[in-house]
């Protein structure tokens, strides 16, 4: 369980983490700068278990994997959005960050609400109010990658063609 | 049979594939740069398996090179150590990765190149499947030599007609952006054709796949013709024979047709790349920095377009004007043909070849309240520096005219 951080449409990778902070690969260092210009309270206050909600096309722009790494290292356990940019979505899967999609109305949640997400059922439920929504089932490839802890760990133990894509 | 992306993937895996399918394909090259290589090395080490074929790994230093600060210097030193340890043959620090990939002959029709950079789509100008990937997947592919693709549906962009003088490939691509919007090609292949594309030079064609990223495209592709092959033979190190890959009885998800003859110069305005207006509407907006360069418009022909306007003129004293050739080869030709002298005499600063100011790490950052007019491909808020700065995108000609006037300026009167 954690708090909801709410964003709009077309959140790009320069908003998630500006290029000038991508000079390290240390997740904790990157987490200090996640949304540092757009939402400076987030890197200071985010806790393990928090949930990020966004609209369409989340993560558009650069291929920088620093973006999902910074989000994950800040404590965000799941992102729920209407849709994602292709590279961001794949990057998130490859590092084991749960990225869920939904067509349901996300305006039933407010920034700052407490909520929890059940990855097995795909239900996002507010613990502040009564709101809850259903996300789309996670693709098998994402379940495999999250369970393995990311693509590199998966390929350490398996042939890459064992990914159920 | 199929769209260009279906043709490329079908040839690669030896059977017909169609949009929506998920396939594994062998990769020709995996490209990363100074910003994305460190995480690829980490993923490669996490896998713990040997490199599949070191000839397929290509590493460039271009994003922040030479290092503008100690952290970048440390990161680049670690990459060089890795290259030495593994005796990797393909290491370049002579300009923007995409430009150098083309010049050095890595880009050939039918090749599949995954790049740790979102503008890897650029290679599609040569009917090579260039796709942007994250570092982990690239580091893993150093061991596997292959990865999975979802064969994308195709949006067919047909550009017909002849552009009027002063209207460039960049202006036309900005008009495509307005039409498709920043999400209109998400996860799709953008296939560009039509009489305008057929008559385009390769440097101009490159603009279209390069900016297909800005509509969310997985890739942007142009069919192979004599212009493609002539350029590969004469302007690059690529060795033929080259496959003439064209779409065959293709089924497109969507067709967008634009008559380019009615277009005027265009500007993508702060704060979104699809906020595109004609330059007449934006004329007069004061500009603090003009930046000409990048993988979109940093080639010799782009510099020549700007130099034709700047020759014998001076840039506005309050508009710092930075010219950054895309590669050493571009720089050399600009030097030999007197373009660098023209820029110097006009009061421009010549930047170090590479990505320069585009990523806001060096070479011309924007302060709060400053406004840039640039030939870049994206104008995300804060990309070039302060989150309180603004970025406007246009052609090299419009950038040159803007530098002279110190405000957004229609280049056409300067081109007569």
Explain how this protein is built.
Chain A is α/β, with parallel strands linked by helices and 165 residues long. Chain A has a single domain, classed as Aconitase, domain 4, CATH 3.20.19.10. Chain A is built from seven helices and seven strands, in the order βαααβαβαββββαα. In chain A, strand 3, helix 5 (86-94) and strand 4 (98-101) form a beta-alpha-beta unit. The mean pLDDT of chain A is 94. Chain B is α/β, with parallel strands linked by helices. Chain B folds into two domains: 4-258, Aconitase, domain 3; 267-415, Aconitase, domain 3 (2-Layer Sandwich), CATH 3.30.499. Chain B is 33% helix and 18% strand. In chain B, the strands form five sheets. A five-stranded parallel beta sheet of chain B has the order 4-3-2-5-6, covered by helices on one side. In chain B, helix 2 links the parallel strand 2 (29-33) and strand 3 (57-60). Chains A and B meet through helix 4, helix 5 and helix 7 of A and helix 2, helix 3, helix 5 and strand 7 of B.
Task: Write a brief structural summary.
The complex is a heterodimer of chains A (about 160) and B (about 425). With about 160 residues, chain A is of the alpha/beta class. Chain A has helices at about 15, 25-30, 40-45, 65-75, 85-95, 140-150, 150-155; strands spanning about 1-5, 50-55, 75-80, 100, 115-120, 125, 130-135.
Please name the two chains that share the biggest interface, counting residues whose Cβ lies under 8 Å from a Cβ on the partner chain.
A-B, 42 and 54 residues
Distance between the termini of chain B: 46 Å
Count of domains of chain A? 1
Q: In this structure, how is the largest beta sheet of chain B organized?
A: 5 strands, parallel
Strand order of the largest sheet of chain A: 4-3-2-1-5-6-7
Instruction: Work out the radius of gyration of chain A.
Output: 15 Å
> How many β strands of chain B by DSSP?
18
Shape of chain A: globular
Q: Regarding CATH, which class of the largest domain in chain B?
A: Alpha Beta
Mean pLDDT of chain B: 97
Sheet-strand content of chain B, in percent, reads 15-25%
Ranges of chain A with pLDDT <50 over ≥5 residues? none
Rounded to the nearest angstrom, the radius of gyration of chain B is 20 Å
**Numbering strands along the chain, what is their spatial order in the largest sheet of chain B?**
4-3-2-5-6
Number of spatially distinct domains of chain B:
2
Q: Major sheet of chain A: size, sense and barrel closure? A: 7 strands, mixed
**Principal-axis shape of chain B:** globular
Helix fraction bin of chain A: 25-40%
Structural class computed from helices and strand pairing of chain B: alpha/beta
What is the element string of chain A, with H for helices and E for strands? EHHHEHEHEEEEHH
- How would you state the average pLDDT of chain A, rounded? 94
């Amino acid at each position: 369980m954690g708090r909801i951080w709410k964003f709009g449409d077309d959140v790009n990778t320069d908003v998630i983490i500006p290029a000038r902070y991508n000079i390290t690969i240390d997740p904790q260092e990157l987490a200090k700068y996640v949304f540092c210009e757009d939402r400076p309270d987030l890197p200071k206050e985010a806790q393990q278990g928090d949930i990020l909600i966004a609209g369409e096309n989340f993560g558009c722009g650069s291929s920088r994997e620093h973006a999902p790494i910074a989000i994950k290292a800040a404590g965000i356990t799941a992102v729920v959005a209407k849709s994602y940019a292709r590279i961001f979505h794949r990057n998130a899967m490859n590092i084991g960050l749960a990225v869920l999609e939904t067509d349901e109305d996300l305006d039933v949640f407010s920034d700052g609400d407490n909520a929890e997400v059940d990855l097995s059922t795909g239900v996002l439920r507010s613990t502040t109010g009564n709101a809850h929504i259903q996300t789309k089932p996670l693709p098998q490839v994402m379940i495999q990658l999250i369970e393995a802890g990311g693509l590199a760990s998966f390929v350490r133990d398996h042939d890459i063609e064992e990914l159920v894509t | 049979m199929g769209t260009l992306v279906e043709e490329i993937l079908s040839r690669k895996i030896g059977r017909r594939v169609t949009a929506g399918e998920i396939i594994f394909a062998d990769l020709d090259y995996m490209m990363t740069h100074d910003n994305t290589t460190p995480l690829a090395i980490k993923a490669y080490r996490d896998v713990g398996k040997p490199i599949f074929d070191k000839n397929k790994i290509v590493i460039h230093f271009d994003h922040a090179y030479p290092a503008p600060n100690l952290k970048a210097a440390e990161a680049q030193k670690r990459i060089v150590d890795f290259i030495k340890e593994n005796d990797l043959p393909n290491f370049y620090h002579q300009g923007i990765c995409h430009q150098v990939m083309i010049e050095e002959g890595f880009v050939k029709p039918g090749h599949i190149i995954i790049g740790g950079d979102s503008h890897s789509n650029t290679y599609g100008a040569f009917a090579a499947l260039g796709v942007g990937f994250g570092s982990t997947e690239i580091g893993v592919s150093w061991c596997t030599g292959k990865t999975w693709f979802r064969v994308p549906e195709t949006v067919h962009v047909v550009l017909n007609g002849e552009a009027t003088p002063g209207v460039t490939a960049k202006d036309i691509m900005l008009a495509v952006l307005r039409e498709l919007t920043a999400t209109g090609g998400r996860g799709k292949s953008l296939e560009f054709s039509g009489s305008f594309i057929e008559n385009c030079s390769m440097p101009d064609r490159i603009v279209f796949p390069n900016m297909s990223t800005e509509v969310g495209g997985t890739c942007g592709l142009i069919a192979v013709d004599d212009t493609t092959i002539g350029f590969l033979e004469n302007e690059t190190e690529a060795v033929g024979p080259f496959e003439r890959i064209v779409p065959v009885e293709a089924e497109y998800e969507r067709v967008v047709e634009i008559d380019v003859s009615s277009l005027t110069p265009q500007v993508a305005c702060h704060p979104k790349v699809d906020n595109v207006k004609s330059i007449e509407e934006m004329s007069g907006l004061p500009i603090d920095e003009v930046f000409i360069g990048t993988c979109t418009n940093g080639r010799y022909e782009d510099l020549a377009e700007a130099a034709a306007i700047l020759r014998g003129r001076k840039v506005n004293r309050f508009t710092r004007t930075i010219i950054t050739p895309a590669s050493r080869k571009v720089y050399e030709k600009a030097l030999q043909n007197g373009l660098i002298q023209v820029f110097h005499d006009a009061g421009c600063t010549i930047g170090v070849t590479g990505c320069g100011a585009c990523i806001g790490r060096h070479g011309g950052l924007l302060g709060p309240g400053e406004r840039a007019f640039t030939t870049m491909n994206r104008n995300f808020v804060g990309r070039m520096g302060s989150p309180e700065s603004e970025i406007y995108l246009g052609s090299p000609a419009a950038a040159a005219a803007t530098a002279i006037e110190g405000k957004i300026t229609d280049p056409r009167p300067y081109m007569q």
